[in-house]
Amino acid sequence: MTEPAKGSEAPDFTLPGDGGSEIRLSDFRGKMVVLFFYPKNDTSGCTAEAIDFTAFKPEFDVLDTVLLGMSPDSPKSHDKFKNKHALTVNLVSDQEKETLQAYGVWVEKSMYGRKYMGVERSTFLIDETGRIAEVWRKVKVPGHAQAVLDATKALKKND
């Protein structure tokens, strides 16, 4: 399966979200969507990334852009994570890992010589028509949310 690239149609999904919600990507047509994939709730990098996106949420709101964070954690785990850190981004649960695989972010990783499957921290900026406008792979957290905001602003300016 080829992973989606810039300019291609973003794979649609319908998955459980935090707070008992159901989140369908196609419901956001007409808005831009920042879809950020992260490995695990409440780990240092993932927490920092979610807090950074939460901090910029008012600016994304002005740009009519939805923030969705996705990991294989359960919806219950997402609720705890959101409450603990006062997160305002929507969190999506992909326990079956089908959407993670569709976006090419469920990959073999290695730590201390041990190989395992996990989420490669990645972000996709999806335009109002459901096409991928920008892709960030192997994301380093510091400054990332700002870079995504800058790219969103640039795209909006060119509308």
Structure description:
With 159 residues, the chain is an alpha/beta fold. It has a single domain (15-157), classed as Glutaredoxin. The protein has helices spanning 44-62, 75-85, 98-102, 144-157, and strands spanning 14-16, 22-24, 32-37, 65-71, 90-93, 106-111, 114-119, 122-126, 132-136. It has a 5-stranded mixed beta sheet. The protein has a two-stranded antiparallel ribbon with strand order 1-2. A two-stranded antiparallel ribbon has the order 6-7. A hairpin with a 5-residue loop joins strand 1 (14-16) and strand 2. Helix 1 packs parallel to helix 4 (144-157). The chain is globular and about 45 Å long. It starts with 13 loop residues before the first strand and ends with a helix.
Count of DSSP H/I helices: 4
Radius of gyration: 15 Å
Please identify which CATH superfamily we are dealing with: Glutaredoxin
Distance between the termini: 31 Å
Which band does the percent of strand residues land in?
A: 25-35%
Overall number of structural domains: 1
Helix-strand pattern: EEEHEHEHEEEEH
| Content-based structural category | alpha/beta
CATH topology: Glutaredoxin
How are the strands ordered across the major sheet?
5-4-3-8-9
Level-2 CATH architecture: 3-Layer(aba) Sandwich
Report the count of strand segments.
9
Overall mean pLDDT stands at 95
- Stretches with pLDDT under 50, minimum 5 residues: none
Largest sheet: 5 strands, mixed
Helical residue percent band: 25-40%
Estimate the global geometry from the Cα principal axes: globular
